Amino acid sequence: MGAFLVRRVKxxxxxxxxxxxxxxxxxxxxxxxxxxxxxxxxxxxSAFCIVLTGVPLxxxxxxxxxxxxxxxxxxxxxxxxxRGGFIAGRFGRRFEPTTVVISGRMVACAGLIGGxxxxxxxxxxxxxxxxxxxxxxxxxxxxxxxxTTSPCRFGPF
Length: 157
Prior knowledge:
mainly alpha, globular, 80% helix, 2 domains
């Protein structure tokens, strides 16, 4: 009922990804409603497309970064996402999920603010410019476990 019969890990991952997407979409609809989602959807897509197209363009023109170096810089988001998940798993049991989520958002915002501050002071090195992505990945990794498990848990909050 409501599930696919799948075999092999690759197919199970695909099914879980669809389930997680459906859950997050239902949560978004519950929080902001269909009209709110329809009003914000172009903004979500345009921001995502700007990142996908803008980062390589800026990195290659401003910093003369090769494609391999760019992949390594952008890959820090994924590596630090895993690190953030480890931190949330290690220390998350000691705090309320809301505290963990807010802490993760603060880490991510601190990285972005730090990157903007360095840019404002004229620091234009690719190392410092992509250092903010480390904090974004770390903050997202800390945020995700608390934000996805707290709506699903049962019992007193």
